[in-house]
Amino acid sequence: MVNFEQRNTKGGALGDLTIEGKDPQFDAWLAEQLQFDEPYLDDDGFCESVMAKLPMPSKKNERRASRVQYIAVLAASGIVAWQFPFGEVLNEAARQSISLYSLVGVGMLSSLVVMAGGIFAARR
Hints:
The chain is an all-alpha fold. It has 7 helices and no strands. The longest helix has 25 residues, at 59-83.
């Protein structure tokens, strides 16, 4: 397999056209590298039989995984909250005469929604 960078670059860096995806030499090289001439290796159903013999995941394991995800999110949130400069933010919000309760409430609510969305997306 020919290394495109070794063959077509000067100074060891890709050109701007290559990075932007407008280099016909790179496109030709990539098309050449993506050609698969090797025959399909038939395994006589081995992979399917191994997959069929594997135990099905239990609901207990799924609940455990969910709990671990929730704990990880809570731990990460705690670390972020611990490092966040609440005093400075609250002082600046007071100086700007923004309602502190609405500002903190919106921030906390939006972060909880984003974290819950991440957990639900990870479970699907």
